Amino acid sequence: MVWQRDVDLVVPLWQGGDDVRIAAGASALAHLIPPSGNRLHVAVTDGPRTTIDGIRNLDAIHGTLKRLRNRLTRRDPHRTLTLGGDCLSDLVAVQHLAARHPDMVLYWVDAHTDLNTPTTSPSGRAHGMGLRALLGEGHPHLIGPNGPAMSTPAVTLVGSRDLDPAETHYVRHHGMAWVDTVEIIADPTRVTAPRPPGTPAYVHLDVDVCDPVDLPAVAVPTPDGPRADSVAEALAAIHAHHDIVGIGICEYAPVVEHDETRLTTLLSALDLTD
Ligand SMILES: [Mn+2]
């Protein structure tokens, strides 16, 4: 049974990571995943590659986020699938669904925590600021008009392993739930352990969570990750435990040579393929 949602958003946003290879990930995922209901291809704003307020390509990113916000406000979907694009591709979808499902929890499945702000970011790349913006801090263009979408107790980090010092401090200071590579390998089904069954959940899947041995086709390959099979087991456990209201798949760079079956293993675990 394929996971049912109201709308698929195809979002080839790449400016957040300043890596144009990521744009092609959106259409590649759209080929791999059969549509369910409406599928919207969202145009990405182009523009000068200038740094504003400490963020690369801020104007272009802001334009795309505004377009997404307008579409979601107009349609008001209950469940969404986002095919990115970089890690900002589903930022607006998470904000929208968090407002619609006040008890929604968020699984941030990513080698990175994306907890930087323009002040703490070493790179100025906004794709490393998404989760912090969802928690209400950072640039107003990323946070959006409605303030914090999530609170730290509602977030579980899965597979995060490459943190900047300020991100490590934030995670520890807030005591965020964090399932690391060792724990995923030991028992992928434990990923949902503290969460009540049946609660609405959003899965943000940056495919760089997998060890690059399995999936090198990403913007930021990060060693020492779990193998794709273990990640798939963790995703299946989340899917079995929760009412999935949203999924976003990000940071796929299909131009890099890779074994596509590793990716489809992840998609099958979330019931996105036939
Ligand atoms: Mn990442």
Automatic annotation (TrEMBL):
CDD domains: Arginase-like_1. It holds the Pfam family Arginase. PROSITE patterns: ARGINASE_2. The keyword Magnesium does not apply. Keywords: Hydrolase, Manganese, Metal-binding. One of its GO terms (cellular component) is cytosol. GO terms for molecular function: arginase activity; manganese ion binding. PANTHER family: ARGINASE. Belongs to the arginase family. This is Arginase. It comes from Nocardiopsis gilva YIM 90087.
